[in-house]
Design goal:
The protein is an alpha+beta fold and 387 residues long. The protein has one domain: 4-Layer Sandwich (L-amino peptidase D-ALA esterase/amidase). It contains nine helices and 14 strands. It has a six-stranded mixed β-sheet. It has a four-stranded mixed β-sheet with strand order 1-2-5-6, covered by helices on one side. The chain has a two-stranded antiparallel sheet with strand order 7-8. A hairpin with a 5-residue loop joins strand 13 (365-366) and strand 14. The longest helix has 25 residues, at 337-361. The two termini are 24 Å apart.
Length: 387
């Protein structure tokens, strides 16, 4: 049974009744809106996702060599974002992280490059890869055309991988963007999420979508997250304090250290990158407000945005376009307050669902020096929710 293609409430009811295994998607019912066909950001027409996952070697860490547990994830708003720039805005809930190109997005009000997620020390290489890929498609860049400022956002996967090796190459990023496609895509231990954690469990890539009823415009809101944050005692699933209930189970293993992540610095708080896409015709002002609402969905999972956490969000509209040739194209901007409110609600719901998806899609992984992050199986959570 492919429960993720059912309505979320019905899927959850069937799973609770039957104990059926999940299909690498969260069965938790979030909100009342239906998801799109793949319950992911690619349910927004035109959006494509590509990923490169790098899992190599085992055993002791050899700086610059391995083991490797990292990767990158690319989100393309349309077939050619350089020529058909999409309205966009960013929001930093907490800024102990990096999203390159954010200043230009917020200054001009649109996005003209793919969005790439990766690990902290590969930001420069990913940026280089995006630029080379774009020059290959638009040879006039930097000669008689403008120059791109790629949007590359990072999370810190140290402890699981050889970060000093910077194993995501510019060529990897170019190949990933060439392979980006609509439809479903891997989640959990995939792409930029390969080495990430979530509330003391294995984390990574998650995604979800919500479709508004016709009376609210019939728009689709899709969210993709890279989850790498949170303390065990914070985790809420469907409002249930699952983290506290499992305080002493499936604890991460860091040989030679306590079974916790570092107590200070960026690895302690972790980070989350949230990408929101919609086909609602919105401008940058409203999209910034939409991006803020992703924080509401994040809060529902129990996260508090620690001082050492980089919680960075970006939202874009695929239908409010700024062609490089000039002018603006697309349907009239959505200004009805009730419909905009519905988009806010869909954003919060899809963000919460995407984080759940990342947690339940992730699987146990052992990385450098035998460090192990355990996946959180839904079957262990189901009886806690049933109470």
């Amino acid at each position: 049974m492919n429960v993720r293609r059912l309505g979320p409430a019905l899927a959850a009811a069937l799973l609770l009744a039957s104990g059926a295994p999940i299909d690498a998607r969260s069965p938790i019912a979030v909100g009342t809106l239906a998801p799109g066909p793949v319950d992911g950001i690619t349910d927004v027409p035109g959006v494509r996702v590509g990923q490169v996952t790098k899992i190599e070697g085992n055993g002791p860490l050899v700086p610059g060599v391995g083991p490797v547990r990292t990767g990158a994830t690319g989100i393309l708003p349309n077939a050619d974002t350089w020529e058909n720039r999409v309205a966009a805005a960013t929001y930093a809930l907490n800024g102990d992280g990096e999203m390159t190109g954010a200043h230009w997005v917020d200054e001009i009000g649109y996005l003209e490059t793919p969005i790439v997620l990766t690990d902290t020390l590969d930001v420069g290489r990913a940026d280089d890869g995006v630029i080379s890929w774009m020059i290959g498609k638009h040879p006039g860049i930097g000669i008689d055309d403008s120059v791109p400022l790629p949007v590359v956002a990072e999370c810190d996967d140290q402890g699981m991988t050889d970060m000093q090796g910077r194993h995501v190459s510019p060529a990897d990023v170019g190949a990933m963007l060439d392979a980006a496609a609509p439809g479903d895509f891997p989640r959990g231990n995939a792409g930029a999420g390969t080495g990430m954690h979530a509330f003391g469990f294995k984390g990574g890539i998650g995604s979800a979508s919500r479709v508004l009823p016709k009376g609210d415009g019939g728009y689709t809101v899709g969210v993709l997250v890279n989850v790498n944050l949170g303390d065990r005692d914070e985790l809420l699933v469907g409002g249930v304090p699952v983290g506290r209930m499992l305080a002493n189970e499936l604890l991460p293993v860091f040989p030679g250290r306590t079974p916790r992540r570092p107590a200070r610095g960026r690895p302690a708080g972790g980070s989350i990158i949230i990408v929101v896409a919609t086909d609602a015709p919105l401008d940058a002002t409203t999209l910034r407000a939409v991006a803020k609402r992703a924080g509401m969905g994040l809060a529902r999972t129990g996260a508090i945005s620690h001082i050492s956490s980089g919680d960075l969000f970006i939202a874009f509209s695929t239908t409010h376009i700024y062609p490089r040739s000039g002018g603006v194209s697309g349907p009239p901007l959505e200004v009805d307050e009730d419909r905009v409110d519905a988009i806010y609600g869909a954003t919060a719901d899809a963000t919460e669902a995407a984080i759940d998806d990342a947690i339940f899609s992730a699987r146990t992984m052992t990385g450098a020096n035998g460090s192990t992050l355990y996946g959180l199986p839904y079957e262990r959570v189901r009886p806690l929710l049933a109470r």
